Amino acid sequence: MKSTADASKPLPQNVARKLISTILTNGRVGYSRHAREEMEKDDLTEVDVTNVLRGGRIFEPAEMGQASWTYRVHTPRQCVVVTFRNDTELVVVTAWRK
Question: Where are the domains of the chain?
Answer without folding.
Answer: 9-97
